[in-house]
Amino acid sequence: MKQAIQIALANSKEMEGFREKVYKDTNGHDTIGFGFRIDFLKMCKPVAELQLYYDLNEYDDELKDEFQWYREKPPVIRALLMEMLHNMGMGGLKKFKNTLKYIEHNEWDKASVEILSNPQRKHGKSLIYYEDPRRAMHYSNLIKQAKEL
User: Sign (positive/negative) of CA torsion 57, 61, 66, 71?
Assistant: First the structure.
């Protein structure tokens, strides 16, 4: 049985070809990878964890390129920034200008408060707090952990 799977694997990879971005197949369906139709795609937890691990490594490199000070920060802060990049992309992360400035200068108390607030918003809360208070508190608590290191 395993021999048949190996043959099918090799043949499918060759016939489908690999594409890392979504494309339309010959029938117009959104497809990715080795011919996986998006509307049929299931992702098991081990595969999702591998993808997340791969992405976090990519984010780590991206953050090193984007912020000169990133490499010198404690692991908990680097992890925070990778999480934020994963959640909101670089454009979203960069909207936290004051928080990033405080992180750059190791002003952990100010950064942990700033990530929760935004005086320009009508309700005074940051967008991340307004959309997902649990995640915002998690981010703030990660910053507070850096103070203890």
Answer: positive
Q: Find tokens 């043949």 and name the residue.
A: 11
SS3 117: strand
119-130 pLDDT, tens digit per residue, is: 555 565 666 766
Instruction: Write the CA distances from 62 to 31, 54, 111, integer angstroms.
Output: 26, 13, 21
CATH of the domain spanning 45-147, picked from 3.40.30.10, 3.30.70.1290, 1.10.530.40, 3.40.50.300: 1.10.530.40
Q: What is the mean pLDDT of residues 59-75?
A: 97
CB 19 within 8 A of CB 33: yes
